Model the fold of this input.
Amino acid sequence: MPQVKPLPAYSENASVSYAHGENKALGATVFSGSNDETAPAFVRITAIQGKDGEAAAGTMSLLGGNAIVPNQVISRADFDKVVWDASKSEGGSFSFVPVQDAQGTALPGALEQTVTIHEAPALPTYEADMSVAYTYNQSKAVGADIFNGTDSATAPSFVRITAIQGKDGEAAANTMSLKDGDALTAGSVVSRADFDKVVWDASKNEGGSFKFIPVQDAQGTALPGAVEQTVSINEARPLYHIAAENFDLLDAYPHLVNEHPAYVQVTNIVEANDTNGILDALVLGEDGGTVLKVGDIIRAEDFGRVYWNYASNDGGKVFLATYNAEGRLIDPGRYFMELEPSWKTPAEAPALPTYKADVSLDYAFNESKVVGDGIFNGTDSKTAPAFVRITAIQGKDGEAAAHTMSLQGGDALTAGSVVARADFDKVVWDASKNEGGSFKFIPVQDAQGTALPGAVEQTVTIHEAPALPTYQADMSVAYTYNQNKAVGADIFNGTDSATAPAFVRITAIQGKDGDAAANTMSLKDGDALTVGSVVSRADFDKVVWDASKNEGGSFKFIPVQDAQGTVLQGAIEQTVSINEGRPIFHIPAENFDLVERYPHLADEHPAYVKVTNIVETNDTNGILDALVLGEDGGTVLKNGDIIRAEDFGRVYWNHASNDGGSAIVTPYNANDRMIDPGPYPMTLTPKTLAQKSLPAPHHEQEATDASPELVGVAQPAMNGAMPLGAQAQHPGMTPLAMSSTALLDSLLEQHPGTTGLL
Done:
């Protein structure tokens, strides 16, 4: 009795985890099962679906091969080549069953298996070199955006703190916590709801850093592809700037002082609640590098560089004596400044302004306008700086950009200019001076540009749109009846090729009466154009209007910046009218009055002609309505109607519902006598039956390609055609001295194809 091979064994609730959008092999063990010895020779895929049970075409394939579909059989040799492409769905599942052979023959006892695909959400994105500025000893939240990243749509649900350390890498216990909550340590998991509650207490160190990584859940489950982030905490030094006007009192107190000091001398220093027993509070320089002692001199050029270091005191007093250049004591003589403890309190210290990353402004070509006070105020008006100092102004390629920035109605701004908050809304960038560029600024404390500890330089990029194209007013394109042709590149390029747009977006397509106009516009030999279609400059000459789809109409477009249809600042929507001609062919007057052109056949001008017969070729409406009077085709001529001499130039053939035809007319003089050559037909035969065209101006008609021809003036006839050679006899009428054939040949020779349609 043959031995039966055991069935393959599979784990329950099998699943495979994928990073967001990841494309990778599932792994052979998914199909082999938990024991290689019982792995099936083949499996048959029974279902493939997305996360919510929807179809998931194109999601599974063989590595480097074709897509896998339900009922496909996979051999063991290919188990490790089966790929799931997570970019095609947001996770999902597939089912399979072990089978005996490549034909999918059932394996008795085998059970269908389901494998779930868990796809991680899109990864958050973060700025490089993230940092948060703190004043000395300040305790505040680091801000939710630190954890959310640059795009709130991809903000993680949780983050795990991976490290907390001081400035020099030392341990930083109790430095981080949740506001009014527990301390945070390495390993703590924070939910998105608490991102804005994460606090750093700068009193516990002198700055430092922490690290975190986005995770999937409160248990800290790894998020595939997530990268650890580092945030630096920059704590300002405990220095308070003593403004220069506290040393040179002339401007502030002209009633007390009448001379600028050359220097002041420190006569005494008192530190309140000194904790280190050293008089080290009065210092020179932003870094507090030079400690000033009693007896030291502070020269006028350093008046703006004096600070009070409150790291080991609660403020205090400084006593000074003021001198001129000759060393003479001048008013007010000796005086003191009192530095109150409130300067030390972090809660009282002004919070630093906060700014968005990658700030940019869009300008129309050559536009001159204010950049906006929000640029300098930052994201929170409560922390807007009192002053900013412009640190750089440059063109698009980094070149100097003189006269580009100014105060509205005032002076030019240059690198080094200080702007007060009251003027933030007056700062102008003049785009006519360059082709875009950038400027930089940094918040400062005062009009002298005194540094604001912890403030970070900001960069603002100016994107200037290209020169706007110019267009004619009331643009239109003339089409003959049912004509299909390109509207012409100049319609989109505008009046100056130098300012032609790179792209245009179609904004409307409609028929003559505003009705929908589906399939009317397309790219030549390409796709249909619809509202929203973007056309590149390379295709401007390929945009086609098919007049057979309507009776004229219009379309609108607007210049845009790119293939995505990004708005071009200042661009104006343009309207192009399509004027489709009527299906009417003009029959020249000489076809009714033959005396000028054929004096050997006719020697008398007719006073009128009578229509004796009309035949329409391939008539589609069953009505004899082709022969008409007037450019508008308003009067239909019927058999028996009279066309008077003054109207000979106003006769047309309407070919909307036919492929030409013939009209037999009989000329008469003013006495109602039929005159030579008697009844004769004009045969109108379109040269191109597939193309119906419309009348052009009379002077253009002889040059047209698509036109019926005047076949000839046939034999004279009464009440119809006469036998060859027969002549019409009327009282006083001279019979024609030639045969009808000769007459036909003569007319064709002298007047070939001059009756034409445009």
Q: What stands out?
A: The radius of gyration is 46 Å.
